[in-house]
Amino acid sequence: MRAHRKTWWSVALSLLVVAMPAWAARPYRGGAVATAHPMASEAALRMLDKGGNAVDAAVAAAFTLAVVGPYHSGLGGGGFALVHDAKTSGTQVLDFREVAPKAATRDMYLKDGQVVPGLSTDGATSVAVPGAVAGYLELLEKHGKLPRAVVLQPAIEAARNGFWVSPKYQALATLRRDCLRQDPEAARIFLAKNEQGELDVPPIGHLVRQPELARTLQTLAKSGPKPFYSGPIAQAMVDTVKAGGGVLSLEDLKDFKTRAHAPLEGSYRGHRILTMPPPSAGGLAVVQVLGALERLRPQGLEFREPETLHLYTEAVRRVYVDRVKYLGDPAFVKIPMESLTSSGYIADLAGSIDPKKATPSASLLPPVEGASGSTLKKPDGTWYDPSSAPEKKNTTHISIIDKNGNAVALTTTVNYAFGSCLVAKGTGILLNDEMDDFAALPGVPNAYGLVTGEANAIAPGKVPLSSMSPTLVFSKEDPKKVMLAVGSPGGSTIPTTVIQVISNLVDHKMDVVRAVGQGRLHHQYLPDELWVDRWGLEAATQAALEAKGHKIRRQEAWGDAEAVYSDPKTNLRYAASDPRNEGAALGQD
Ligand code: GLY
């Protein structure tokens, strides 16, 4: 056998390949963070600089986002986290998503058999039992190193000193102005008097101060989660929701429990992937779509090539059909996860794709007959077409890898922009409208235009199905080493955003900044449309896809991917905060 001799040019080439993913991004020798708000990224960095680990940093960022990003997350919401411990090489999943109150009923949003728009999205009737406080503090308790008071300090300061209203805040407050005006407490905090003396969307630069929220955070820093779930804070939340006609009770709060799950495992072209299992539908979509694409194109995808985009779209369409058929809270419904992730199933999924033409969604699973409208209300009381505005979908994500290789991917939400628009009196806590993630009526789209099925029907104590997909991708050479922490908001578009960032890195060898910034495409079974963002397609590629039968809908930008990449070879870290939004990627030199 002839020995392989390295010539000078093959050495130079391999050095170039090693360096490739880092060309456009700034390297950090220490930890790196990416979040949707500069103040949250600074809070995370402050914890790393104090000697904290990725979890201290993530929890500081999550509490700070609860203050400075009320349009996407908060103490009144819930979420999911993946935590990787570099020392043990173990990855834990914590599910602190909201659950339906005990008095919730399957038909609570129906009148005469039809969905009443707005009931599951606006005000007291839309509120599920919040889990964020339990989740953030449990993460800190189990995996953090720094004292609670230190980790909550940046959030307390942000609530006390204020943050300034940005264009994004303005856009989302405009979307929810009427909803916010329904609650005097929310209107007082999140709106500002205009020239006519009415509470209106504040001007850019207006300072939002939240002294009540600062007090609540101080209580949590001192006493932990208890007062939130059984003390005076709990009472305030219950009183506010009850006064608005909702069903949240003290028992709901007292009995709230986080859930630990095993991560959902997949792989893509030699990279191990750990992601969120049900009650998220997102992680399964990531695993199934990437699995199918690897089968169809084992050498990798070509960049923006029409055949490849067709296969991607068809795989995604089929995966969203599975979501309707099977997915809900695993504590309530039996989900055939083993089968859905098996290589045989993924091979069948890939094999069912016609390479020449688009499969009509209705031929895979007929839409529910007579279902129309959505759960979201327009100001005139009629229903709103959620598929027309994916950029308005909300939630937020934090990605962190610290200098020791510990990693956190944490996605958290109050659901729609400004949640339910209801603030628990005297506490500053903005409550979620997560009940809208249930199927109010199978076949009727929710605020994200998503249709879900029987498995996601409302039941007391049940977790509504989510799309949130916090994901860790591991190094090919060392499957115990996290290479990428990634996630995004965007409702139904979350999993496809995560899939495209991973493909951009793995297939197209982009640095993480470029991978996050690329244009995006999305399908979700219904509506039967391929959504393309402003930067997603060239005209000729669009024509080629239309020739295959895809109905293309041009949309504005969506998502807010936050990602940290750790180069397995150099051990340098790179962070990217989606250029579509106002976040910040920071790191330690
Ligand atoms: N509330 C958005 C999601 O969980 O998917």
UniProtKB/TrEMBL annotation:
Catalytic activity line of the entry: glutathione + H2O = L-cysteinylglycine + L-glutamate; an N-terminal (5-L-glutamyl)-[peptide] + an alpha-amino acid = 5-L-glutamyl amino acid + an N-terminal L-alpha-aminoacyl-[peptide]; an S-substituted glutathione + H2O = an S-substituted L-cysteinylglycine + L-glutamate
Matches recorded under InterPro entries: GGT_bact, GGT_CS, GGT_lsub, GGT_peptidase, GGT_ssub_C, Ntn_hydrolases_N
Superkingdom in the source lineage: Bacteria
Post-translational modification as stated in the protein's UniProt record: Cleaved by autocatalysis into a large and a small subunit.
GO molecular function annotation: leukotriene C4 gamma-glutamyl transferase activity
Location of the region described as Disordered in the Swiss-Prot/TrEMBL record: 360-390
Pathway: Sulfur metabolism; glutathione metabolism
Name of the protein: Glutathione hydrolase proenzyme
Taxonomic source organism: Archangium lansingense
Organism classification: Bacteria, Pseudomonadati, Myxococcota, Myxococcia, Myxococcales
Gene: ggt
